[in-house]
Every structure is written in C-alpha cells, then in structure tokens.
Design brief:
The protein is mainly alpha-helical. The chain is built from 3 helices and no strands. The radius of gyration is 16 Å and the shape is flat.
Length: 55
Amino acid sequence: MRQFKWIEGNLQKIDARGLSAEEVEAAFDQVFTLQERRTVPSGCSLQHRRAAGSG
C-alpha cells in the first residue's frame, strides 16, 4: 500500500507542475542513464559490457 501512496504522490507532483508525458519520460530516461553509468566499472564502456553479454 505504501508504494501506491508514493506513486500517487509523484503523479500529483507531475500534475501540479503541468509536465507532459514526454517531459516525464525524458526525466526518467535521464535518471536511468545516470544510474546505469554508475554501475559500469571504470574503463569498461556500456557497449563493451553488452557485447560481452553482461549488460
């Protein structure tokens, strides 16, 4: 139940700021990309990890 309150709160913030679906998606993609970068060991590109089958 707690997760639904968190989701509802985020939907209210999106609505209050008047964000479009595209803006929300772009923000999500930005955060996801930043988090993905943090998981890549230094000296190892994401393309290299994908080619090796681990990313």
